[in-house]
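User: I'm writing a tutorial on reading structure tokens. Could you give me a worked example: one chain, its sequence, then its tokens, then a sentence or two explaining what the tokens reveal?
Assistant: Sure. Here is the example chain.
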Amino acid sequence: MTMGVASSANVESSDIGNDVKVAVLMGGVSRERDVSLASGRFVAQALREATVEVVTSDIGPDNPGILEDDGIDVFFIALHGRFGEDGRLQQILGSRGLVYTGSGPEASRLAFDKMATKKVFTNSGVVTPVAVEFTPDIPKSDIRRRLDDLGGRYVIKPIREGSTIGVSIVDDAGLAMEAAHNCYDEFGDCMIEQYIAGRELTVSILGNTPLPIIEVRPKGGFYDYDAKYIADDTEYLFDTVDSDKLAEDIQKSAVACFNALGCRHFGRVDFILGNDGAAYALEVNTIPGLTSHSLLPKAAAKVGLSMSDLCVRIVKLALAGRRAEHPVNPAMGDTG
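And here are its predicted structure tokens:
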């Protein structure tokens, strides 16, 4: 069941104007650089197929030259991880008055910080697994005592990474402490999260509308980096939530998560549907993958949106936001 998603019959994939030029920002400096390059290539190709003029740029903090090009109308951010997804690039673009796709700097910063996200979820009444932050400054005895309330299985995650990088699952509190220490040494601040037994679901958001729920079933049982981007045996299944009411509730929860963080244009919300019947929100991805393995394009295709339709729709959302901020005076025309 899907709530009010337009099919491709209602999408004019090339009506953003022949004079609109889009720069796809890709690559970057994070551990997800290779995925970002793949996403950027897919986005660029999709826009070109819709007859949109496109340039691509492998951008980083030390080479932002493309942002000086005043011929660019929209910057399509296809960077994942640090710099691209943590709000820093968005802050730069916004400070220059440039039009870009995706969430703004504050929403991006919140969503990229898993502990900050959990606080927002909890304050908004969204169910999420309990987690304990791990840093060397917190007494180990305090952390260990709190772990006793989380059950006997734990998920260790870097607080500010994506694509399941650095994530591990252990069955013992002592091992969880050890894994968290190792995680901290490599990635910085990390957390130990309550393990929820259940099924992994994801809901993509386009505009402010949820796309169909996808259940992810990796063959190895853990949806890690390899299962996401390399393996060909991961299953992506639709219509596996038997109850229409439950499916609709999960979609509504996804939109609530998206809005609670202040996100815009597009994103993806990940859940565990617990064996207890509750849907636990894990995180919001403000720039989800846009590769051949990625979930947002699969969900869009389910409702008849091609990759070109999807990317053009995102560009249109960015342009519409710009027009809302700077409305045209009919008597004066668009003075830019």
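What the tokens reveal: The two ends are 42 Å apart (CA to CA). The longest helix spans residues 307-325.
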